[in-house]
């Protein structure tokens, strides 16, 4: 816990700075860029039936979008109002009416022809639904029938045969906490959340490197730091309000560095709608972009450290903060020896960067008195994601960029609900304020809750899905899956396998505000749909935790209510009482206020949440800086410098490394078929012009991307992506990603692989031969050889 408190928002400079302008032509006319004014008008029109309510949500509620932490139109970083089109796009989820009955009860085959975007636009789920085996329509159910159906099944199951999952869709800390408590009361540790497929390696790596599981700094630390590094993060697209912080940082002289395989246009320049100067003339953001190979980040960082140690050999103190390292770290000699044995040929080949380019960034960081490292799924969604993040921590520890102003490690979150999920215990490895593996934490929670916790290790969500296909006699054969939001058909690798898993469960429960494609799949006994409230409808309000650990209160907002929808936490409590009526007295959690009071006891760093009750109430968990003054909450109080081996990334000649990217979307919810920053369509494959030329591919030409796991039909989109690498949109490209490949420490699925790219006409011309199978076998053989 840091002793320094956040000092609140600061003002932007009033005088414009033409040096940062992208163009003197107003509003970027003629350039490929988002049309913010047009889009805002379109969203206002979509919400015209509930416009006063929409305005109240925007001005009174906590942002429903990313985890930058905007309450109403204001945050704790910059004075003045903030708004972005991501938040505006999500707004309609809260204001749209209920689905019309004739659509809700249509034949399941008719509904199944709709995309998730089309299903979302139908409206809100108004009342409980049940569809049993063989039935072709959902029928209306009472809450008693729906919950009694689930409870009866649960009572007859081994607790290892049921699982809970919570997405980040507007879910509050209160709901995460109650779900975690209910799961353990019912005897299962099979509970997981959306961070498993985005930032779980960030938590595990930061815990082992510096003893904390969240951002060590604030957004304010961006503003005035010497160097701000975005590593595998396209914040301008995924967290658009962050561009305002980048603008403020640029005005203070901060150098912004981007490290990514694709030269993302939105990180180079942006028209920030809530800053008049930027809205008119745009803002140059990135000072430099280092295009690294997909999966080449560890080599890049080993190269940086190799340069530093070489600088130290020539001139001690020129690259490493020896006072900080001596006082606050362990493992320097092991790390030095490990880096010394790395050869430059391997480092440059793996990273895709020359020794000169690696040395450039090493020198920039060595000269910097301060730096903040920001990262996202470009680093985490690898089978070596935890090692990636520990490498970032190594850089920060060697330079002393930790525990003070304008310094820190920041895993930037993509959803306003997700930071609190593990901290509330909705995680197979976590308890509120602690870890399942800690005897002290288990004893503390058992005393507070009044019942014994299950002692066996719960499964991550990927394994949970795999367990649905286990033989009938297996102890962990998944029979009941209770998911609050989420659509695994569009988020997990290998959609064909996911479909098989979801349809092979006895009962599947979808607690949600809208339908999606996974809701419509069959189950062996029944599919139960429970209508949930949004965060703005929940009695007593709710809280969410931002990337920078700000815990915001979002009040209940007056407005229309949808049918029989209930607060998420209230549904969990009601279900638990039906499954175990004899233990009902142990549940508590009778109101949002009571839940917050209990959270304050269960999670010590959340002491203060019990006092949040009015619009605008906020406190910061852990203070302004974690590891303040370099003191880490590790057993010896020191950060750990860890030697990290290069991952094996052999890629056969003529094949490409592929990764997924986001377009105009919020998580898996797609809002446009065209990316406003590069005009790429959803099935466009981003490929370097020289790679396209080498394959005799023309712009827009039909191609097939394939490997041993699946295939994707797309079109050539020449772009400034690192040669030898291609990018496809997520989730459209998930068919290429192997199932069952998880990062060993955090369990995140691998979202990167090797593929073949061919003209569609060539691929299909050989479809009646064993050509494709031979090509795939060649790929696999060469990768194993």
TrEMBL record:
<keyword id="KW-0479">Metal-binding</keyword>
<dbReference type="Pfam" id="PF01568">
    <property type="entry name" value="Molydop_binding"/>
</dbReference>
<protein>
    <submittedName>
        <fullName>FdhF/YdeP family oxidoreductase</fullName>
    </submittedName>
</protein>
<keyword id="KW-0411">Iron-sulfur</keyword>
<dbReference type="InterPro" id="IPR006657">
    <property type="entry name" value="MoPterin_dinucl-bd_dom"/>
</dbReference>
<dbReference type="InterPro" id="IPR009010">
    <property type="entry name" value="Asp_de-COase-like_dom_sf"/>
</dbReference>
<feature type="domain" description="Molybdopterin dinucleotide-binding">
    <location>
        <begin position="658"/>
        <end position="754"/>
    </location>
</feature>
<keyword id="KW-0408">Iron</keyword>
<dbReference type="InterPro" id="IPR010046">
    <property type="entry name" value="Mopterin_OxRdtse_a_bac"/>
</dbReference>
<dbReference type="InterPro" id="IPR006656">
    <property type="entry name" value="Mopterin_OxRdtase"/>
</dbReference>
<dbReference type="InterPro" id="IPR050123">
    <property type="entry name" value="Prok_molybdopt-oxidoreductase"/>
</dbReference>
<feature type="domain" description="Molybdopterin oxidoreductase">
    <location>
        <begin position="124"/>
        <end position="577"/>
    </location>
</feature>
<dbReference type="Pfam" id="PF00384">
    <property type="entry name" value="Molybdopterin"/>
</dbReference>
């Amino acid at each position: 816990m840091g002793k320094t408190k956040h000092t609140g928002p600061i003002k932007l400079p009033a005088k414009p700075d033409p040096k940062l302008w992208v163009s003197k032509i107003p509003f970027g006319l003629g350039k490929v860029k988002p049309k913010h004014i047009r889009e805002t008008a379109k969203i206002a029109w979509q919400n015209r039936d509930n416009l006063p309510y929409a305005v109240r949500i925007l001005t009174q509620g906590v942002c429903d979008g990313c985890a930058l932490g905007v309450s109403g139109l204001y945050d704790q970083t910059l004075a003045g109002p903030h708004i972005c089109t991501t938040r505006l796009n999500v707004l309609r989820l809260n204001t749209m009416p209920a689905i019309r009955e004739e659509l809700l009860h249509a034949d399941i085959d008719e509904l199944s022809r709709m995309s998730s975007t089309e299903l979302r636009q139908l409206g809100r789920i108004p009342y409980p639904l049940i569809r049993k085996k063989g039935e072709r329509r959902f029928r209306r159910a009472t809450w008693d029938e729906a919950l009694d159906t689930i409870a009866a099944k649960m009572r007859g199951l081994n607790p290892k045969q049921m699982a809970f999952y919570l997405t980040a869709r507007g879910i509050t800390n209160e709901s995460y906490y109650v779900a975690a408590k209910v799961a353990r009361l019912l005897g299962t540790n099979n509970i997981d959340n959306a961070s498993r497929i985005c930032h779980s390696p960030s938590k595990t790596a930061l815990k082992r490197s510096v003893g904390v599981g969240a951002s060590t700094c604030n957004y304010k630390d961006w503003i005035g730091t010497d160097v701000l590094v975005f590593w595998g993060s396209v914040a301008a697209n995924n967290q658009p309000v962050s561009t305002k912080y980048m603008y403020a940082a640029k005005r203070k002289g901060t150098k912004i560095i981007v490290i990514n395989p694709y030269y993302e246009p939105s990180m180079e320049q942006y028209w920030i709608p809530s800053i008049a100067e930027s809205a008119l003339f745009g803002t140059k953001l990135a000072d430099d972009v280092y295009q690294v190979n997909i999966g080449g980040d560890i080599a890049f960082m080993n190269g940086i450290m190799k340069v530093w140690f070489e600088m130290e050999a020539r001139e001690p103190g020129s690259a490493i903060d020896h006072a900080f390292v001596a006082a606050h770290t362990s493992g320097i000699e092991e790390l030095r020896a490990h880096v010394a044995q790395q050869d430059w040929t391997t480092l440059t080949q793996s990273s895709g960067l020359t020794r000169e380019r690696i040395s450039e960034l090493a020198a920039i960081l060595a000269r910097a008195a301060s730096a903040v490292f920001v990262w996202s799924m470009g680093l985490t969604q690898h089978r070596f994601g935890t090692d990636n993040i520990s490498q970032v921590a190594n850089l920060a520890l060697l330079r002393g960029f930790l525990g003070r102003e304008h310094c820190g490690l920041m895993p930037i979150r993509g959803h306003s609900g997700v930071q609190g999920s593990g901290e509330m215990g909705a995680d197979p490895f976590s308890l509120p304020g602690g870890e399942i593996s800690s005897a002290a934490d288990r004893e503390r929670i058992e005393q507070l809750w009044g019942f014994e916790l299950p002692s066996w290790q719960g499964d991550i969500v990927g394994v949970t899905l795999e367990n649905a296909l286990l033989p009938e006699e297996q102890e962990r054969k998944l029979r009941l899956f209770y998911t609050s939001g989420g659509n695994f058909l569009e988020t997990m690798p290998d959609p064909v396998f996911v479909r098989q898993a979801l349809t092979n469960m006895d009962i599947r429960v979808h607690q949600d505000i809208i339908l999606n494609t996974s809701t419509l799949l069959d189950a062996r006994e029944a599919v139960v749909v429970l209508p949930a409230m949004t965060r703005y409808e929940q009695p007593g309000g709710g809280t969410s935790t931002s990337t920078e650990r700000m815990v915001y209160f979002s009040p209940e907002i007056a407005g229309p209510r949808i049918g029989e929808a209930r607060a998420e936490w209230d549904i969990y409590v009601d279900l638990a009482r039906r499954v175990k009526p004899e233990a009902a007295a142990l549940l508590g959690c009778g109101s949002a206020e009571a839940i917050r009071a209990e959270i304050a006891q269960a999670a010590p760093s959340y002491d203060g949440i019990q006092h949040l009750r009015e619009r605008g109430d906020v406190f910061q968990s852990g203070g302004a800086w974690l590891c303040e003054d370099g003191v880490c909450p590790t057993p010896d109080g020191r950060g750990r410098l860890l030697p990290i081996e290069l991952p094996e990334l052999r890629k056969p000649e003529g094949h490409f490394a592929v990764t997924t990217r986001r377009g105009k979307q919020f998580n898996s919810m797609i809002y446009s078929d065209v990316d406003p920053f590069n005009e790429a369509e959803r099935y466009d494959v981003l490929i370097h012009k020289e790679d396209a030329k080498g394959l005799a591919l023309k712009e827009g030409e039909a191609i097939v991307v394939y490997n041993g796991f699946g295939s994707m039909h797309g079109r050539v989109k020449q772009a400034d992506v690192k040669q030898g690498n291609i990018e496809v949109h997520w989730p459209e490209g998930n068919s290429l990603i192997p199932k069952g490949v998880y990062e060993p420490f955090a369990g995140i699925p691998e979202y990167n692989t090797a593929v073949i790219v061919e003209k569609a006409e060539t691929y299909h011309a050989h479809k009646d031969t064993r050509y494709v199978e031979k090509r795939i076998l060649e790929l696999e053989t060469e990768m194993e050889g």
